[in-house]
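Q: Could you predict the 3D structure of Adenylyl-sulfate kinase?
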Amino acid sequence: MKSASTDVVMQQMDVNAATRARLKGQRPVAIWLTGLSAAGKSTIANALEVALAERGRHTYLLDGDNVRLGLCRDLGFTDEDRVENIRRIAELGRLFVDAGLIVITAFISPFRADRALAREIIGEDFFIEVFIDTPLAECERRDPKGLYGKARAGLIKNFTGIDSAYERPLNPEIRVGTLEQSLPEVVSQILEYLDKRSSVS
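A: Sure. Here are the predicted structure tokens for Adenylyl-sulfate kinase:
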């Protein structure tokens, strides 16, 4: 991405991404969880980070609601704001990967173009798209925050799955189904993929 200013030049540093990764003894990646609201993204992301911490891995978890309380608190939920929200998260994810971390993101990230941009920003070699494939009907049944009910009543506008589109991933690295798989099974599936990916890197 180009800077808005022509006077900004990237400053080169002596300690690079490879050095940071070597010091941490791990292969940095961004694990990008996408799916509808109430699909289970935050629950899976939290359990995955716990499992990685138990392995001694250095991680950071970026959760949609938490980020909107700080970094992205100036953004709403229009399509334009959603695009900017994901762009900011991708740039932050790139920095975490550069720092040698395993970063886990839990965001609806409804648009394919935005997820593709996130992949481009972070880097193809460091990006793992995980589709939390929970049907809309099940997400509405769960509705832990009452958001679907409000959206159906017209109290929330631009709500993904109701009056704003969710574009399903076409070729995610990992697909999990929360109706068929338990939480430990989902976490194991992702860990197995990470182990396999690291073994051939």
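Q: Anything worth pointing out?
A: Strands lie at 29-34, 59-63, 102-106, 127-132, 174-176.
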